[in-house]
Amino acid sequence: MQPAFRTEALSKTYGEGPAAVHALRDVTLEIPRSEVVVLLGPSGSGKSTFLNIIGGLDRPSSGQAWFGDQNLTEMSDRALTQYRRSHVGFVFQFYNLMPSLTARENVDLVTEISHDPMDAGEALRLVGLEERLDHFPAQMSGGEQQRVAIARAIAKRPAVLFCDEPTGALDSTTGRRVLQVLNDVNRELGTTVLIVTHAAATAAMAHRVLHFTDGQLRETIVNETRADPAEIEW
Amino acid sequence: MALTVLHRKLFRDLWRIRAQALAISAVVALGVMVQVMMAGLTDTLTVTRDAYFERHRLAQVFEPLTRAPSSMMEQVNAIPGVLAAEGRISGFGRIDADGGEPVQARILSLPGPAGLNGILMTAGRKPIAGRSDEVVLLDTFAAARGIALGDTLGVTVEGRHQKLQVVGFARAPEFLFMPAPGEFFPTDGRFAVIWMERKAAAAVLDLDGAFNEVLALTTRERPRKAVLADLDRLMAPYGGGAGYVQDQQTSARFIEEELKGLRQSRVFLPPIFLAVAAFLLNVTITRIVQAERREIGLMKAFGHSGAEIAGHYLEMALMIAFAGALLGSALGVMLGRSITGLYMEFYKFPYLVFSMHPGPFAGGLAFSLIAAALGAAIALRTVFRLTPAEAMRPPAPPDFTHGRVGFLATVTKVFDQPGRMILRQITRQPVRSLGTVAGVAAGLALNMAMLMIYSGFDHTMDVTFGFADRSDATVSFIHPVSRDVTHEIAHLPGVLEAEPTRYVPVLFRNGVITHRGELTGLSEDAQLNRALRPDLEPIALPAQGVVISRGLADVLKLQPGENLTAEVTEGRKRTLSLPVAAISDTLLGAPAYMRLDSLTRAVGEADRITSVSIRTEGAPSPELLHELRERPKVAGVSIKSDSLAAFREIADEGAGQMRFVFGAIAFVLSFGIVYNAARNAFAERAHELASLRVLGFTRGEVTLILAGEITLLVACALPVGIWFGWTLAKLIARVFSNELYRVSVSFDLPSIATAVLVVVSATLASILMLRRALDRLNMISALKARD
Ligand SMILES: Nc1ncnc2c1ncn2[C@@H]1O[C@H](COP(=O)(O)OP(=O)(O)OP(=O)(O)O)[C@@H](O)[C@H]1O
Ligand SMILES: [Mg+2]
Question: Under CATH, which number does the domain A5-231 receive?
Fold first, then answer.
């Protein structure tokens, strides 16, 4: 089976000359479909940069990245927008909900522009928020807001879900709940899930763990057995 | 130390919001510009007029007579309150230019020893004593007709033909703005004044050893009206009794009306701009303070006082206002000079006493700083209220919950998510949304009202010369002639129709209100000269009574059914009491129409007329003009198309410039408001917009969401602005209407469309500029941090 993502010598440099920052150096890897992949590494090691490039938010300085057989590095801005629109879901540390829309409306924001989306109510039920459909972000806790963000990300049935520190702003119980939801999405919808995190323990729930250091992929670990997110300690 | 860092932040912040700061500065600049321009214009006009009137000793009291012996001047000088007086000779003659139409000319004796109603020689010299054929000619007439020094003029006075040599050109304050007799607009080529040696003037007008007009300057001790009353009484036996003071003199009157209008716009225009600027600063500073809550909390935690921090933001507002005030002052001076030039030309001032007091500059600066401070102060209450701890907490998402109840909830259901975002954003900040709507509406209204006034002016011309007065030319006579002359003229070559008119100069009276004017007698079946109803249908003149124009009705506060008193000021003095039968919708002048037969009966004269209106086949032919020149009783012929064209040319030049200025003002105002609103929305919601881009919304879609809010507000502003503009136009029309002319406004679609177009293009321009900012919006950095 074709991998979900493939990269070849992917590099990203900010600035020039001696002041240049090499955020990514020659990253070559493959991510199989329908896996939960956790990206670990110290701060500034290039995790977000990598995620942003394969998520179609940023462009590399050199190297190639493929989504299936589509070369992301050769796409126009318009095509990248279309790629994000049809195939990708994002979850960020700071939720990024529209404060002027209710939970259901935040999800509908995405379903209105997708082919074959799931019902907003169903997406919110998947994240356990069926009781809070008509609440505004201001009326919800951080964990609840993050689950709305996940519902919004999965409602269009994306092929991949990118999560950059989804539990970063949450306490451990709430964080576990969020990871549980991500795991369910992977299991029930077959979505490839990429999670960037600082909580090393999260690695236990992954099919595959990518270790970044200094802009380079240092190590790839394939877990023989995966832990249930509910059992993760951190 | 802290201060310098704060200042560095101030300049960095100003640089960051430079486009927005510029837009606000531009609005401030407009207010100051209008203030400085109007002040410069009114001051310069006022000072120039005063200087001109004073230097050339324009009389303060005028008393026209039939004839009084020179010895009477002793008694005139003895009237208490008379500072200086002069008896001059005044009459009419006719200049017969070869081939052209005969032009009626004022003939005046040159100013006497007291120098009253002095003249300013612009070229040549005054006549040499004893040379009765040498004359000074009004320079604007000479220029328009191509008459040079040394040329000979053929002039008919009292039926006698004279050859006069032009030895000098002059101007006089008495003739700053003078329509030719029987015409409404001043046109250079149709209004002539000939100054002659006193003896020569007396000789041609049969006034040897006499005079027929008293001019007087008065002392401060006695009111002019009192002096005039004495003079009227003294001169009644000599055909006087209908004198007037300087304010009522045509030329002085027109200038004063113009100045009144300028003074009024100077009072009401600038505050609009400054209010808008204050509002824009308020919204912008509020937005910046909200975005910088953490920094403010941090500074407070470091020990800065609320006042110090508020001062920092206040400085920002003041600097924006200051820059605007400087720019506005410079623009105001430039524009003021250029418009002053136009006025000078229009009013024939020979020189210009440019007057620019520091007052308007200081005032403009002070008012813009105060407006800025006010706008900022309201926004800065937050700074004082913020506690360090509160400011350091991550901001809670803005609360939209209240929008869920009632009407709004129902309305928003209809829309998709972006539509809801737009609507909720607008309703969450109702004051700000209302302010934006009001500001855009104000810009639209100003422009629209101005355009309506100008098109109202065109309408006035069209109605007056298309419906009320349908003649092609008017032949006027020096003294009343027999009505039979009408038939004679009707048979001249090329004349299709001829109609008699009788003008009788009178003093209208209703209680204590008086107005100098004339009764207009028209034939029963008048076709060329008509009184009109508002729907432009002619009013049939009643056998008894008068039909008065709206202008006269307003001045005299008369209603149909009441009685109008008219004191005849010429020939046999009588007082008529005439029932007002109807009010006509006459736009130029303030006539009172009567049937010719009942008018002549009322003044106790046989059927006599003073002018004949004619309709001709094509333009009046040289043969026709020749025939008219051959008739000595003809005082002049005014050809309508010529005088209209000449007047429209000057009027359009002025109107064109003002249209452009107001169009530009409306554009900058709308742009300033719309761009600011869009920019603030963009800054506040950059994060949201970046999120939308991440979610797969295209640039176009995100632009639409952002533009949607502002477009909706502008769409709301359009009807409000149109309504406000219409109200304003009617108000201006009322304020500016007087008995000289009435400004009529109609719900004129082209004016509305033009004004709307300006607002729409300003909106489009700001959306395009915003689109560029959106293109540069970096998704990643917008997502990295909260605000
Ligand atoms: N816009 C930018 N300009 C310059 N350097 C940048 C920019 N964005 C990222 N970098 C640099 O690139 C490197 C990688 O950043 P990246 O955000 O990918 O790190 P990360 O692994 O996600 O770190 P963290 O765990 O702290 O989020 C860092 O050294 C960072 O300073
Ligand atoms: Mg990161």
Answer: 3.40.50.300
